[in-house]
Design a protein that fits this description.
Elements: H1 3-8, E1 21-27, E2 37-42, H2 45-56, E3 60-65, E4 104-115, E5 121-138, E6 144-150, H3 157-176, H4 182-190, H5 194-203, H6 209-216, H7 221-273, H8 279-291, H9 296-310, H10 317-331, H11 344-354, H12 359-374, E7 382-386, H13 393-404, E8 408-412, H14 420-423, H15 436-444, E9 450-454, H16 467-474, E10 483-484, E11 491-492, E12 498-503, H17 511-515, E13 518-521, H18 527-545, E14 553-555, H19 557-566, H20 574-592, E15 599-601, H21 606-610, H22 618-621, E16 628-635, E17 638-650, E18 655-658, H23 663-678, H24 680-683, H25 688-692, E19 693-698, H26 712-724, E20 732-734, E21 737-738, E22 744-745, H27 750-759, E23 764-768, H28 780-785, E24 787-791, H29 794-801
Parallel strand pairs: 1-3, 7-12, 7-13, 8-9, 9-12, 14-15, 18-19, 20-23, 23-24
Antiparallel strand pairs: 1-6, 2-5, 3-4, 4-5, 5-6, 10-11, 16-17, 17-19, 21-22
Helix pairs in contact: 3-4, 3-5, 3-7, 5-7, 8-9, 9-10, 11-12, 11-13, 18-19, 18-20, 23-26, 26-29
């Protein structure tokens, strides 16, 4: 190292005066800013001569950026032959044209010069001051120009200090995000000259050559800081966005890499344990899909869902949802149907063996089978069995299914309030499932089972929807061929299903739903019918349930009749079966205690097994006399007797009604009294009695609400009996609505009312003439033992009731 180089290390370039003229060292491709140091390689002879001359003088050169000129770009020339990147020359190696240099540059101080063996100069230059070029005084062998120093004075005041602080903070933030080296941020904080801070920051922002030169030419400090701050802010936003993207990508990659690693571990563990690979699950589903016969739409949906399942990770919750959905599609009997047994004689024999009576229903089923035998594509009927509890509605459905050879499915609708119970839940809900219809089809395994929809009259409705409205599509033969469940979202053909619904009350079923069903009413049984049912079905069933044989127990017909009369009072046979079961339990106890041989239970023995008699003939038990008449009432559990009692006392013509009567029944009592008062002379009643007496009408069993117009005839007969002193025939019951003109209007529930009269031992009934058509439905045994009087008006009823004409 020369002595001059040793001395240069001791010299502070910032203190050196700037000569009037300086050799110009042009730079290509970048801008040199004050406060920066830069090593460069120089290989061109003219540039090397410029450096040699500067070293011998004051070591100062004017470093100026060369403009981008298209004609100077390209390969070849002297400079390329040296195979060294020379920033002081373009592609052709010629001395630059002064017109192609920017007017503002820096004063560069040459700190160090190292000459390599191949002749290339390694030069370290630092820029300390900014100059503006003037007139060029020399062009060969290198450029020399007059220069004027551009002052860099700190005159911005407090505003400039604030801008400088913001610039340093932003640059520090960019360094934290990795947009620039951390060492440079420390350097920025250490610099005291605001111009140096701005120039160092702008060199790291990544601006174009023209933009950097434009910033170098700014003389005012505040303008400079404002411009650099804007450019840094843009760069910082880009860096922050890039950092956020990189962070998200890294998190996603880390999660996927972790899942992949765990999945590979799981595979290895399963392989060691000899377990099947998880992909085997999809393979089994594809094989099952290929083997299952599906409609076109269901098959397309299943294939689409299976392809989607293959792209879902088995650990994802969506995998279970999609797999369950596929299982439902593949398990449903879309095209699988059982073959109907169309043997009419066998079906009739099966129904007769399992059910006594019910001729109307058996006739309807045989008709359906007969039509199905001729027309195979007939839609299944929608039958509705309406009747009191215990008459065999549900068991009848099971017998129909057996006689037809179909699967039997029972669905209880009592208390169902959610529409989704019928149509299912959409798959967007957690734990979603198809509705009961689709679930039952899967359970049945055929597309044409017999569905027994029990208690359809007890469907509810609340904020979750109206299930009865959802049943409209299910029970409509014109619509149910494309029933859509919310879970499946694929139409399912229900037209082959035979639907049978049951209800206790027809009035509680909505009109549109009732219109879609063929209603068949099951009234109560007569005593003879109950006796046959007990002998043929209930007694053998209870004996088998209690491990008894015909050698252990014998019940005579008289004993069974006594059970029916004195221990049950119902339209069906459910309570009778319980009482027979009670007798069987008592016999079993005796056998266990050591009794051997046949035990015959007589009528007198029933109290030992069942306790004292619970029911008796109310008409025979009452104290009979004028003012007492027997009416007939309809209840949801069958018919019942309704006794009308009347009494008179001194008063002013008032009418008192008791017995928890409804509004309609009270109006019937008022109408009855009005008719009697208006026809007093015809009836042989003294008119003074109405002004001098109060009349009390009472219907016993006052805790039970009573209502309806059908007790009108009984009220008139009771009042006339009271006022004339003629008693009503004890063995006579009556029903019918009356008008003020004395006409007897028809009422409902005739079969149930007449059967109630037969059960109570009544021998004659008075019915409205218009109800004659309902007598066809009466059992033959009831028609044989009962005298029926059909009346048009109340006078005909009074003639029958107040004489011996009601006796058989």
């Amino acid at each position: 190292m020369t002595d001059k180089e040793q001395d240069s290390k001791k010299i502070n370039p910032a203190n050196l005066p700037v000569p009037d003229e300086l050799p110009v060292l042009p730079l290509h491709g970048f801008v040199f800013f004050p406060g920066m140091g830069f090593p460069m390689q120089i290989s061109h002879p003219s540039s090397k001569q410029l450096v040699d001359d500067a070293i011998l003088k004051h070591r100062l050169v004017a470093v100026v950026t060369h403009r981008r000129v298209e004609e100077e770009a390209g390969a070849g020339g002297e400079g390329d032959s040296e195979a060294v990147i020379d920033p002081t020359r373009g592609g052709d190696g010629r001395v630059p044209n002064p017109d192609h240099l920017y007017p503002v540059g820096v004063v560069g101080y040459i700190h160090k010069l190292v000459k390599s063996e191949d002749g290339v100069y390694q030069v370290l230059i630092s820029a300390v001051k900014k100059v503006r070029l003037g007139e060029f005084t020399q062009r060969e062998p290198y450029l020399v120009a007059k220069v004027v120093q551009v002052p860099m004075e700190d005159g911005g005041g407090q505003e400039a200090e604030a801008m400088l602080l913001n610039l340093r903070n932003q640059f520090k933030r960019m360094a934290e995000l990795g947009g620039t080296p951390t060492e440079l941020a420390m350097t920025v904080n250490a610099l005291t000259n605001p111009f140096y801070v701005a120039y160092l920051v702008v060199s790291q922002v990544g601006l174009s050559l023209e933009e950097e030169e434009e910033i170098l030419e700014i003389d005012d400090l505040k303008t400079l800081l404002n411009r650099v701050g804007r450019e840094l802010n843009k760069k910082l936003e880009t860096v922050e966005m890039s950092h956020e993207i990189q962070k998200n990508i890294k998190q996603d990659m880390d999660k996927k890499q972790r899942e992949f690693y765990l999945r590979e571990q799981l595979k290895a563990i399963r392989k060691e344990l000899g377990e099947e690979d998880e992909n085997l699950d999809l393979k089994e589903l594809r094989e099952k899909l290929a083997e299952t016969e599906l409609p076109e739409e269901a098959k397309k949906t299943a294939e689409k869902e299976l392809n989607r399942l293959g792209r879902i990770s088995p650990s994802s919750p969506e995998y279970t949802v999609s797999r369950t959905y596929l299982d439902w599609i593949l398990d449903l009997p879309w095209l699988k149907a059982s073959e109907d047994n169309l043997d009419i004689e066998r079906a009739a024999r099966t129904l007769d063996e399992e059910h006594y009576g019910l001729e109307k229903i058996k006739k309807r089923i045989i008709e359906f089978l007969a039509v199905r035998k001729l027309k195979q594509d007939m839609h299944g009927p929608i039958l509705c069995f309406v009747g009191p509890p215990g008459v065999g509605k549900t068991s009848l459905g099971q017998s129909i299914a057996r006689s037809m050879g179909r699967k039997f499915v029972r669905i209880s609708l009592g208390g169902v309030r959610d529409e989704a119970e019928i149509r299912g839940h959409r798959r967007t809900y957690i734990g979603a499932l198809p509705g009961r219809i689709i679930q039952s089809l899967r359970k049945a395994g055929t597309s044409n089972p017999l569905f027994m929809l029990d208690e359809v009259d007890k469907l509810g409705m609340d904020f979750r929807g109206d299930p009865s409205s959802a049943l409209l599509e299910v029970l409509d033969p014109e619509q149910n061929f494309s029933f859509s469940d919310h879970y499946l979202e694929i139409p399912f053909d229900l037209s082959k299903v035979m639907f049978i619904t049951t209800a206790n009350l027809l009035d509680n079923i909505p009109g549109p739903l009732r219109d879609r069903m063929e209603v068949i009413e099951l009234s109560g049984y007569t005593e003879d019918e109950k006796l046959h049912i007990a002998r043929r079905h209930l007694l053998p069933k209870q004996m088998d349930a209690h491990a008894l044989s015909i050698d252990d127990l014998k019940l005579s017909d008289e004993t069974l009749r006594e059970i029916i009369r004195s221990y049950t009072r119902e339209a069906g046979v459910r309570n009778m079966e319980r009482e027979i079961g009670g007798v069987c339990r008592g016999v079993v106890r005796k056998i266990v205690e050591g009794h051997s041989g046949l035990i015959e239970v007589a009528v007198a023995d029933l109290a030992e097994y069942l306790g004292p008699a619970r029911f008796f003939s109310e008409s025979q038990a009452r104290t009979w006399g004028p003012g007492l008449a027997t009416g007939l009432a309809w209840t949801p559990v069958g018919g019942a007797l309704l006794f009308i009692e009347t009494a008179k006392m001194k008063g002013k013509g008032g009418l008192n009604l008791t017995g928890k009567l409804g509004e309609v029944m009270k109006e019937s009592a008022s109408a009855a009294l009005t008719y009697i008062r208006s026809h007093a002379k015809e009836l042989g009643i003294d008119e003074k009695v109405f002004a001098q007496s109060d009349i009390h009408v009472h219907v016993p069993e006052g805790a039970i609400p009573k209502d309806g117009p059908s007790a009108g005839v009984a009220m008139v007969v009771s009042l006339v009996s009271l006022l004339t002193g003629k008693p009503v025939n004890r063995d006579l019951a009556m029903t019918g609505e009356i008008t003020l003109r004395g006409d007897v209007l028809p009422v409902g529930g005739i079969k149930e009312k007449v059967l109630a009269a037969v059960r109570a031992g009544i021998h004659a009934v008075i019915l409205p003439k218009i109800n004659e058509k309902d007598l066809v439905d009466l059992p033959a045994s009831a028609r044989e033992t009962l005298t029926v009087h059909l009346v048009h008006d109340i006078n005909e009823a009074l003639k029958v009731a107040l004489t011996d004409g009601g006796k058989k």
